[in-house]
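Handout for the seminar on molecular recognition.
Each group receives one record of this type.
Step one: identify the two inputs.
Step two: read the structure output and locate the region that could contact S-adenosyl-L-homocysteine.
Step three: write two sentences on what you found, then compare them with the reference statements printed after the record.
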Amino acid sequence: MLERPQEELLGLDLQELTAIAVEAGQPAYRGRQLFEALYRQRVEAVDQITTLPNSFRSELAKNHAAGLPQTQKKFVSVDGTVRYLIGFADGESVETVWMPEGDNGEQGDGSEAGEEELSGGPPLSRLAEPAPTRSLGARQGGFKRATICVSSQAGCAVNCRFCMTALLGLLRNLSPGEIVGQVLRVLQDQKVSPESERINLVFMGQGEPFLNYENFMKAVRLLVAGVGIPESRMTVSTAGIVPRIRDFGGEQVRPKLAISLNASNDATRDQVMPINRKWNLATLLAAARQFPLRPRERLTFEYVLLNGINDSEQNAREVVTLIRGLNAKVNLIALNPGPEIPFSTPGDERVHAFQQTLIQAGIPTFIRRPRGRDIYAACGQLKRAEVVQISA
Ligand code: SAH
């Protein structure tokens, strides 16, 4: 007889877990217990859910797995960044990156996370709280905040010419449980809890979140309601899937939005991001202008600087014209190089000159620090590279 495949509980919401409990003849509150066990306690297996009666536990374990994914490999950078290769039940894997001090990505985005980066500490309002969140700076190893970079698909279909993930092609979409599971696995390994420590999430790993929209959004809701990470500490980046930008603007619960601009005119963007032929700059910027921002929120535009391709003074002035009047900031990223990437990294002086042009035009512009380049953990380098393995 064929064994029934185990259904993974991770990825189910409170309603779905409650339905499972009720179907098994249990009271509805067992659903809440399952929800807490999966997302707060991060149980590895159904039989660890000790809040449930033994009989229900063993009944459940017959055809359900908890679904927490495994760490297949772990690479540690000299700068403290950790790149995890996280494996799922079918053998597929993605990368998830732990950045103990972030990468300056949240600076000036109008959020609490961004304010903390600018001021180097929590905002005053937070200091006045009766039970202030314990700062990660108090931990041994001394980091103040941490950012987890999460993948939304295995591989990617978008084919940006400067990105190593594109070389994998699209392998498959991740389920909501696989997206949430990456965060849980990293929190587990780093022994941190979002209830007491400051964790930011960026959906900027492998994949295009807006091409796996429903699963991505369900994962966001579970991360907020289940894991306890506020949406104001999350940012999703898109290559510019315009219809989904519109949908995203209408979501009740949503992260902040970052758009990968990466070129200042259609001719260049067509070349470096072929998706521009489907949704060009005028269409993309129109969607950005219509995007409903919350009070104090800002859009982020990311701009990968490619030596001699999109990094001139003229390009900087074109960016100013494109985004003038928008409540937005720009994050500049000097290309993280990689084998098979046909571009080079501009020198620091070009990066700074580009930044100055934008700043002088009144656009808050920040330079993203490359994190974990030595272990292929930086932006655009997630391609499951096998470099020196530190521990399994
Ligand atoms: N698919 C989404 C999410 C990935 S975010 C998106 O495109 O936005 C990854 C970020 O890293 C994007 O802003 C992308 O433009 C940038 N990036 C990709 N390749 C890079 C590279 N080689 N060096 C620096 N940044 C890169």
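Reference statements: The pocket of S-adenosyl-L-homocysteine is lined by residues 158, 160, 162-163, 204, 208, 237-239, 260, 262, 302, 304, 333, 335-336, 341, 379-380 (CB under 6 Å). The longest helix spans residues 176-190.
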